[in-house]
Protein 1
Amino acid sequence: MTNQNRSEKLRTLSPVEAVQTWLDGDFGFDDEPALIAAIRKDSRITRSNDEIIDFMADALMEEKADAQKYLELLAKS
């Protein structure tokens, strides 16, 4: 799959699917903007792109990462 096709597919994910994809590391170089776009479908998400990236980097360090839990935490400012 080309980068463009992969990015387009990632943008179609639900917010929780996008968080899970991020946690699974199932994305390629420069796909973060597409994942952020999918996460932003949840209208509660008001953090900046950099804050989302930092938050998800911290979430990756957790041993038992639960996508729904992290989406809820991400939605809290």
Protein 2
Amino acid sequence: MDSLSTKLRRARESRKLSIWQASQKMDCVHANGLRTLEGLNPDRSPSGERCELKTVMEIIRVYWPDITLEDFMGRPVSLKLVPKNTAATRSLKGYLAKTG
């Protein structure tokens, strides 16, 4: 199983974003926080379990479906995140059909 930092880096790179560009797409998420979560800040632990809920939800909003709540928790959780409109649901089904 990939670590959160590896998954975050892959999700960002697959969208062809720099850390700064990714942080600009997220409300109240700073580039330094993303650097820390990707394991690029040697002075801080990259643990996702200590993130504020707003930070977690913003990262999932931008990187979903590559990043899920389980990635931050490090274990399965009993919550499920789903798109709230039909266009997003159709888009997700197409994405999953293409990528497996």
Protein 3
Amino acid sequence: MSFAQVSDAVLFALSVLSAAVAGVEISGFFPVHARPRALRRPGGSLLIAALGTGAVCLTAAALGLGLRSLPWPAVIIAGGLAALAAPVVFESTPRRFWDSRSGTAVTAMVNFGLLGVLLSLHR
């Protein structure tokens, strides 16, 4: 693999990991009565919607990048390992981060930031 493909594979894996971590985080917010108190207040649903939107868009962009610029075995291996690592990353981060409004906002911003990088580098 060339340097460009290796860097694309790293960006792809990082994007899949970030989107998968967001998916794990979102799964803890449903049903609504299971949400942390901070996210049951006004605006909490908007933060969760932004997190979900960022994760879905990032996943689509990452798959587009992967399928366009990487060999399919690299897509399967890098994406699979990244998705499998998401629960480990989630569990290794303090619970107070995930249960806070700022933690949800930071995760959404990371997803949108990676989406911006993907879109700017691979038009």
